[in-house]
């Protein structure tokens, strides 16, 4: 039964996951390394039981309706805001993501951005390449040290906790955080303290956002939030672009209301400028480091994501509840 199941992969991912799928299913891999067009997506899902999607694929009710046999959508990402999960649940389609295998990768990238901003690494690199380094500068490229400073983590889930551990153990930072729940273990091990959003914004020297994109987290960081931050604060976003208002961020950076920012995700991604007419461009500012949504881009994380997504598809197609199901309520009335 399973050997006849058809699985569609919308874009090349590490071979490990593809090989797993090929052992037990009839796999169609779209080989072009570009975002799939809507047309090709609607066509590609036509006869399949399993879909391995990436976060730039918008999987809505129309895509599901073009796939009458579709039983499982495995998103090659921890975030799944590109999928209409409610529409999937209504149709009896299982949706899975890839949690737990990229916590180090994303936390390491957040750390890379923190240090790149605080020690002005990119700015200094540009300066050096331009052969502007003429003599050692007693007052050049000075930034804050991090030891003893306060790290504010918004969203103390797996990734937030991993970052908290890294900056506490590695840099000697104090940790404050916001979350729905108290993380007793981290409070005990790291002396982390759960505070209100207001308090976190006022106290933190570095603020890093680790929440999923939901209606309630859209523009979680907006003008009012930037106003509460220290003038010396650094903001890091490796979660989803719309969690931070790009306009408010650019204004805060331009007016030096905060020291700097490290940004891996963009409100109008892949564009890094939602409104070209507003004279607010991140890319012209020196106090921001920009990366193209690469926080999970380690060999280890991407291989693990590919095998986890493949395993979820194989499990669902052999009537085994995937460990990474995001709509568990669908399981008892799933399509068979
Ligand atoms: C990447 O952004 C992910 O959600 O995995
Ligand atoms: C810096 O290079 C120093 O020697 O202090």
UniProtKB/TrEMBL annotation:
<dbReference type="InterPro" id="IPR050857">
    <property type="entry name" value="D-2-hydroxyacid_DH"/>
</dbReference>
<dbReference type="GO" id="GO:0051287">
    <property type="term" value="F:NAD binding"/>
</dbReference>
<dbReference type="GO" id="GO:0016616">
    <property type="term" value="F:oxidoreductase activity, acting on the CH-OH group of donors, NAD or NADP as acceptor"/>
</dbReference>
<dbReference type="GO" id="GO:0008652">
    <property type="term" value="P:amino acid biosynthetic process"/>
</dbReference>
<protein>
    <submittedName>
        <fullName>D-glycerate dehydrogenase</fullName>
    </submittedName>
</protein>
<dbReference type="InterPro" id="IPR029752">
    <property type="entry name" value="D-isomer_DH_CS1"/>
</dbReference>
<feature type="domain" description="D-isomer specific 2-hydroxyacid dehydrogenase NAD-binding">
    <location>
        <begin position="111"/>
        <end position="295"/>
    </location>
</feature>
<keyword id="KW-0560">Oxidoreductase</keyword>
<dbReference type="Pfam" id="PF02826">
    <property type="entry name" value="2-Hacid_dh_C"/>
</dbReference>
<comment type="similarity">
    <text>Belongs to the D-isomer specific 2-hydroxyacid dehydrogenase family.</text>
</comment>
<dbReference type="InterPro" id="IPR036291">
    <property type="entry name" value="NAD(P)-bd_dom_sf"/>
</dbReference>
<keyword id="KW-0028">Amino-acid biosynthesis</keyword>
<dbReference type="InterPro" id="IPR029753">
    <property type="entry name" value="D-isomer_DH_CS"/>
</dbReference>
<dbReference type="InterPro" id="IPR006140">
    <property type="entry name" value="D-isomer_DH_NAD-bd"/>
</dbReference>
<dbReference type="InterPro" id="IPR006139">
    <property type="entry name" value="D-isomer_2_OHA_DH_cat_dom"/>
</dbReference>
<keyword id="KW-0520">NAD</keyword>
<dbReference type="Pfam" id="PF00389">
    <property type="entry name" value="2-Hacid_dh"/>
</dbReference>
<feature type="domain" description="D-isomer specific 2-hydroxyacid dehydrogenase catalytic">
    <location>
        <begin position="7"/>
        <end position="327"/>
    </location>
</feature>
